[in-house]
From TrEMBL:
Signal sequence segment: none
A GO MF label: flavin adenine dinucleotide binding
Residue ranges occupied by any Glucose-methanol-choline oxidoreductase C-terminal domain in the UniProt entry: 441-496
Gene3D superfamilies the UniProt entry points to: FAD/NAD(P)-binding domain
Source organism of the structure: Chryseobacterium limigenitum
Protein name as it appears in the record: Choline dehydrogenase
Domain Glucose-methanol-choline oxidoreductase N-terminal span(s) in chain numbering: 200-299
Keyword Methyltransferase assigned: no
Keywords from the UniProt entry: FAD, Flavoprotein, Oxidoreductase
A Pfam family hit: GMC_oxred_C
């Protein structure tokens, strides 16, 4: 019997464990996977990107019932072990209704001010480096980032200067990385194997290192790995969860807890609730609104590789972003989205993404000249974009929306790069390879258990408590009402801190 069971050890689960650790309550964190092994393959792009060494072998279904292997990572720290640690606050406007080319982004039941203090704490907890005020769309804060920005390497500085001369306003990217030695680290530190790789040097600002490891220092906090939650059972009245049925090493067990925090990620949390249907909840737990699994969002994303005329020997290029088109402006009636840098591609990544080499280039030469960009536009909530479960298999029914803004954003970036002359002088007309991110890349997943004031139209309240159940809180990307156009991780972390404070002050009182 536990006081609190947290399902999932990613951004939400690990951080709320950290927040509740000093409560004195008996807390169990359940993780489906194990620790990511520290091995030389951590930094091998063939192993990580081509052989998918660390992703699940599970198969999901798309809307046409075609199986695919998702880029999901089931391990301690969740997907944060592999993310690029770009840690943004949502803009103040993101919490309000916004008109887009593809429709309306709805207002949240909370405002930016409700998370402001928690955003700052989250930045400190995850070792964020940045420069306050350099991003013209960033909400004002009198306190600087906890750490100074990561400096641009010479070639990236040239690109920054060229975009400044073009009239854009590139800013220092907020990145979570801990440059101070970590006592458990057993590998030398490098930044050239960062974005998309697990970090053998343990310097990346991930949920395992920044939150969960601190929580586990308390004797009242336990971690159970290699344990998959199969279903949640309720009492006869359907008012609270009484049992958590799990499978560990082939053995089925039943656990009990006064309080359940579901933080398995927007997709898996929704799937677990749907799989746990019973007589009181024939459509799935916490689903009297029929909103569980609906409104699935993961952004319109594109990875763009631009070939620079001169070699790019950058080790870590993920140091700047551009938000000149984040809001509507004099040129565009509606928002287009956000641009940031990616980690430096090597020949194996480019070969995997591009079917043919550029004229006059080998893949090795392409990698030597590559400058890598990541473009994000808002994905709008659509109830028909949804997570369901069919015969125990997760199905993602998804159709893209708001694509016009994203295509305009790509066109603006290519136009700006061409204007410098550095991206076409050597290649005649400039060659760009772009790869869209489809449903197999659910890194920015959110929206499946949306927050709201009305139980009839939402799944959780403003403290992430399920409307339908007295002892269930859902703390992962599922609570998002809209997706914004920046990485969601920091908002999940900040919300976990906020919900943790609520639980300690109002629910877990002894």
């Amino acid at each position: 019997m536990y006081d609190v069971i947290i399902i999932g050890s990613g951004a939400g689960g690990a951080t709320i464990a950290y927040r509740l650790a000093d409560s004195g309550k008996k807390i169990l964190v359940i993780e489906r996977g194990d620790y990511v092994p520290v091995e030389k393959e951590n930094w091998d792009s063939v192993e990580v990107f081509q052989k998918n060494r660390y992703t699940t072998t599970d198969l999901w279904l798309d809307k046409h019932d075609k199986p695919f292997r998702p880029g999901m990572h089931y391990n301690v720290g969740g997907n944060t072990k592999f993310y690029g640690a770009a840690l943004f606050r949502l803009r103040e406007e993101d919490f309000k209704e916004i008109q887009h080319y593809g429709g309306v982004s709805p207002a949240w039941p909370i405002q930016y001010e409700d998370l402001k203090g928690y955003y700052l704490e989250a930045e400190k907890l995850f070792h964020v480096h940045g420069k306050r005020g350099s991003d013209p769309t960033e909400p004002y804060d009198s306190e600087p980032y906890p750490n100074p920005p990561i400096p641009h390497e010479p070639r990236i500085q040239e690109v920054v200067d060229e975009l400044n001369n073009y009239g854009w306003h590139p800013f220092e990217l907020p990145i979570g990385v801990n440059f101070k030695p970590h006592e458990t680290a057993n590998a030398p530190y490098t930044l050239d194997r960062f974005d998309g790789f697990p970090d053998a040097a343990e310097r990346k600002g991930d949920a395992h290192l920044c939150s969960l490891s601190k929580a586990l220092e308390y004797p009242n906090v336990e971690l159970m790995v290699n344990t998959k939650v199969l279903r949640l059972n309720t009492n006869e009245d359907g008012t609270k969860i009484t049992e958590i049925v799990v499978e560990q090493n082939g053995e089925t067990k039943t656990l009990t807890s006064d309080l359940i925090i579901l933080s398995a990620g927007a997709i898996n949390s929704a799937a677990l609730l749907l799989e746990s249907k019973n007589e009181k909840f024939p459509n799935g737990l916490a689903n009297s609104s029929d909103q569980v699994g609906r409104n699935y969002m993961f952004h319109q994303n594109t990875a763009l590789v631009a070939l620079y005329a001169e070699p790019n020997y950058t080790k870590f290029g993920k140091t700047f972003g551009v938000n000149d088109f984040y809001h509507a402006n004099k040129d565009y009636e509606f928002p287009l989205g956000h641009i940031q840098m990616l980690g430096k591609s090597d020949e194996h990544q480019i070969k995997a993404d591009s079917p043919v080499a550029a004229p006059g280039f080998t893949f090795e030469l392409m990698a030597e000249h590559a400058v890598d960009f990541w473009l994000t536009s808002e994905d709008l909530p659509d109830p028909e974009n949804r997570v369901t479960v069919e015969n125990g298999q997760i199905k993602i029914s998804y159709s893209s929306n708001n694509q016009k803004g994203h295509e305009l954003l790509k066109a603006e970036l290519i136009k700006a790069l061409k204007a410098s002359g550095k991206f076409e002088s050597f290649l005649f007309k400039g060659i760009y390879f772009s790869k869209g991110m489809d449903i197999a890349s659910p890194a920015h997943q959110n929206g499946t258990t949306k927050m709201g004031l009305e139980p009839k139209t939402s799944v959780v309240d403003t403290n992430c408590k399920a409307h339908d159940l007295d002892n269930l809180y859902i703390v992962d990307g599922g609570f998002f009402v809209s997706s914004g156009a920046v990485n969601p991780a920091l908002t999940i972390i900040a919300m976990a801190l906020r919900v943790g404070d609520h639980l300690k002050s109002s629910v877990l009182k002894s």
